[in-house]
C-alpha cells in the first residue's frame, strides 16, 4: 500500500464522514422542528403541509445515507478492489487495438456506475415519491427513460470520449489543452442543442396558448429586453408532481419553459414573478459566470491530469497495475476520484450560487411584484414538500438556493 493509497483512503473517509455528520445534523434539525410551523410561515403554510415536508426530507435523507454507502463501496471496488484494472485487462485481451480496448473499458466502467445507481433511483421514484404523492411515472416510463439515457450516452458520449482519448494519445504533452478545448466546445454545442434536440426526446413541449398569461409574460420579456424562441409548457406531470420553470439554450436558441403543474398551481402574477427570477439569472450574467467558472475548473483539472498521467504511483495507488497503465485508465481514475479530493469546495460553490439566487430575486422584485414572488415561493415550498427548517450547516454545504426563511425575509425587505 503506497502513500497515495493512504492519502486516497484518508480523503474518502474524511469526505464520507463529513457528509454523514452533516446528514445526521439535517435529520435531527428537521425532526426537532417538525411539531410547529416556523413563525415566518405560520399564516401561510398549514401544519399538515409542514410535517409532510419534514417527513419527506427525512425519508430522502435516509435513502441518501444508503446511497452514500453504496457509492463509497462501489468506488473502492472499482479502484482498490481492482474493478477498473480487471475491465482494462479483459478488453486488452479481447481487442488488439489499445485505443479501442481503452475506449470500451472506460465505457464498461461508466455502464457499471450507471447500473449501480438504478436501485436507489427506483426506490426514490416508486417508494418515496409514491408515498408522498409526487410520483406520476410508471415502471415502463422509468425503463424507457433509462434506455434512452444510455442510448444518448452511447451515441454522443462515446464519440466524444474517443476523440479525447485520440488527442491524449496523439497530440503530445499539450494534449490537455486540446482536450479541454474540445470538451468546452462540446458543452456549448450541447447547451445550444438541448432545447430543440435533446429535451423533446423526454418530454412534450407545447407552445403557450394565446391569452392573458402569455400577454403578461411577453410584456415582462419586453421590459427586460429578452429575446427567446418561444414560451413552452412541458408535460412534467407525466413523471412527477413537482413543479418548476426555467429558460434554456444559448444564443438564438433560447426557450422559456414552464412545467404544466406549475402553471396549474400559481396565478398569473406569481408565474410572472417566478419567470422574472429566472430572467434575472440571464440578465445578471449568471449563466456566463457559471460557464466561465466551469471552464476554469475544467482547465485546472485537465492540467492536473496532464501531470498525474505520467506518475506510476497514481495508477498503482488506485488499484491499476502498471501493465494496464494507459491514458484511458488515467482519465477513468481521475474522473472517479477527483470529487473525493475536492469535496471541500462544495460550500464555496453553494455560497456562490446562493448569492446568484439573491441577485435573481432582487431582479424579480424590481421587474415584477415582490409580494407575488413571495406567495409563489411559499406555494412551491408547500407543494414540493421542501423543508422550511433545514440545518444551517447542512444548507451552507449543500443548498444552491437560500433556505426558505432567509429567502423570504430578503424578498420581504424588497416588497
TrEMBL record:
Binding residue positions for Zn(2+): 277, 281, 357
Topology in the lipid bilayer: Multi-pass membrane protein
Alphabetically sorted, this entry's keywords are: Endoplasmic reticulum, Hydrolase, Membrane, Metal-binding, Metalloprotease, Protease, Transmembrane, Transmembrane helix, Zinc
Supply one GO molecular-function term.
Answer: metalloendopeptidase activity
Q: Name one GO biological process term.
A: CAAX-box protein processing
Keyword field contains Cell inner membrane: no
| Cofactor binding, note field | Binds 1 zinc ion per subunit.
> Which residues are listed as membrane-spanning?
6-23, 69-89, 150-168, 174-194, 290-309, 329-352
Regarding protein family, the annotation reads: Belongs to the peptidase M48 family.
Could you tell me what this protein is called? Peptidase M48
Species name: Methylovulum psychrotolerans
